[in-house]
Amino acid sequence: MSEALGLLICTVGSLLAGVCFAWFFYWLERYRWQETYLLGCVFGWGLVAGVFANLFLGLLVPWNMAFHLESQALEVPRRFLLVAPAVEEGLKALAILAVMLMFRKQFGYLSEAMIYGGVIAAGFAAIQNVFYLYLAGWQPAGYGGMASVFVNRVVAGGFMTTLCGAAIGAALAWAQSRPKLWQRWHTAITLWSGVYGVRVLRNGAVLLLSERMGYSPVSVAGWVDGLAWLVAVLVVIAILRREYGSFVRYLEEQVREGRIRPDQAALLRRRFLPARLRIFLPINYDATCRAVVLCSELALRQAALSSDPDTSGIQQRVQQEFARLVSQLSQAS
């Protein structure tokens, strides 16, 4: 009974964490018009890819280590350093490539390709973390061991896997835009090699620090992977700065055309950051926040309209709702 309970807790905890990281990538580019159910399917595809990665790794390392190799890194250092990143990032790339072949249009946008790559990687990591939580946490040390692995592997290490997946998605989108076939292959392989190199450096740092400091590789990996959180923060800042720039330009255009008063535009500018952060967990979501979100969406859609005329109908519907909310702001003021 306790073993079944432990496995259930590990599975639920890992899947919930995976969904949170997947939602983060969806929130980053909230205004792209992919359906939420489609991202759910992509997350599920990442779960399948994670299972195959563990099974394939079992052919290259001892079977009892394959499902929690990082916790056994000091026993098979070369395989942990070189083989594990190749298997994980290689199968992750194949999973993302399969989605790209089905949805080529979505991979025409670099940011949208990053979403798909990050969501697939979140599902990929969720499956791996189930085994780590159970085999490296629950079985040897019960709740305490599981909590330690959850903090160091699932939370601290969450962005390392997902950002690598997002980078692979962006690499495939960039490669797809190249005019010649050999250029596409060259770009994809070169950029994938960069992601693989990052994982090798990361695993090398885990091995070195584990040997020098005497801590378990999983704990040390949590410290090393903390750098990925810094990268994630920088990515958020860069995307929000870019989005705010297009948001302000669109507001200025609306003011010049007489559709928005200057005081209304100033109010929307002041509420941009609180509204943008609030949609991560849409609680207390008032009309002003909704107007900010729609304005940002209109700015993005206006830029994409020339390359994707099919979105013109969506653009008109969003404009109508935005105009209605602006009129409510006018009445409120």
UniProtKB/TrEMBL annotation:
GO molecular function, one term: peptidase activity
One of the Pfam families matching this protein, by short name: PrsW-protease
TM annotation in the entry: 6-28, 37-60, 80-103, 115-135, 155-175, 187-208, 220-240
Keywords, comma-separated and alphabetical: Membrane, Transmembrane, Transmembrane helix
Record flagged with keyword Transmembrane helix: yes
Keyword Transmembrane appears in the UniProt entry: yes
Protein name per the record: Putative membrane protein
Organism: Thermogutta terrifontis
